[in-house]
Amino acid sequence: MRIICFYSCCFFFYSTSSAVKHSLQLLVTASSGVPNIPEYMGAMMLDGIQLGYCDSINKILELRQDWVKKMLENDTELLEMYTRYCFVNLPNNFGRRISSLEEQFQSEGVHILQMREGCEWDEKTGEETGFLQYGYNGEDFVEFDLKTLTWIALKPEAAITKQRWDADSVRTKHNENLLTNIYQKWMKKFLSYGKSCLQRTVLPSVSLLQKTPSSQIICHATGFYPDRAVMFWKKDGEEIHEGVDPGEILPNNDGTFQSSIDLNVSSVTPEDWSRYDCVFQLSNDEHVITKLDKTVISTKCGKKIPCNDGVDTPPATMTAVIAAVVAAVVALSVAAVGFVVYKK
Prior knowledge:
Layout: E1 2-6, E2 9-13, E3 21-32, E4 40-46, E5 49-55, E6 62-63, H1 66-73, H2 76-105, E7 111-122, E8 128-136, E9 139-145, E10 150-153, H3 159-166, H4 169-193, H5 195-198, E11 205-209, E12 217-224, E13 229-235, E14 238-240, E15 244-246, E16 250-251, E17 257-263, E18 276-282, E19 287-291, E20 297-298, H6 319-335, E21 341-342
Parallel strand pairs: 2-21, 11-20
Antiparallel strand pairs: 1-2, 3-4, 3-7, 4-5, 5-6, 7-8, 8-9, 9-10, 11-12, 12-17, 13-14, 13-18, 15-17, 16-17, 18-19
InterPro entries: Ig-like_dom, Ig-like_dom_sf, Ig-like_fold, Ig_C1-set, MHC_class-I_related, MHC_I-like_Ag-recog, MHC_I-like_Ag-recog_sf, MHC_I/II-like_Ag-recog
Transmembrane segments: 320-342
Keywords: Glycoprotein, Membrane, Signal, Transmembrane, Transmembrane helix
């Protein structure tokens, strides 16, 4: 699972796991009654990688990948289209929609409207699909059905919205064209231009960490790309699940990723440690194997393991992992709403 946070609003979503299945996603958050955050924020994601971002405060289209910048320098028409989408379409459309929902529910205070739309393409089978979903105040609200070209109410309160949006035939045709045609073209254009960058593989740096001699062993991998990877522990060459606690794959600031997996060694005798291996593996089978060896485990207080007078705190190298969770908790308390969980 991946977490993308814009100020106090976060999207939780699952990355495309197949090496031949690609996805283009547009994520938008509009808010009302929330101080100190933009009224709307938008991001475009390709195979889980953020390509661009915009919001109502900065009013600048921020391109997050160098190859995307070069691509749009050569395609000013597409750049103008994205800019117009960010600073004309988003404020107009989402402003009206969140106002309409506030009027419909006759409620005041904090309100969050989130949207996820885009497409998927299976390069191997050629199958193409589109998706368009809305969440309101942290709950699934409506989604567009491409087969029937109608909206599906995901909760009883959304029935009125479904009726209104179904009656808008112009918007229905526009959605169909976006999901089955335009977004597919955008995605394949991005894939073609950024192929060398998107298809690269980078193996991680792997460390073994432990707070105290009786604590669990943390196998931490960072700096890998892409995020289609797995981590697991082996004993005598066989994968094990008992006493194992896998972590999530999370993004680093430089576009790479990190993850970790813990092993409970409380019942493992010292002479048996050498029977265990931590395995990191990319989807193309490139891998890094790290043998469980006390001589390479960091246990001293300092840069990797902080001292806190006996309180069992995770190592500092896991700061980014914790920060993502803390950001979600802070967002929940500030916005006073839950978050929409979108699963593929």
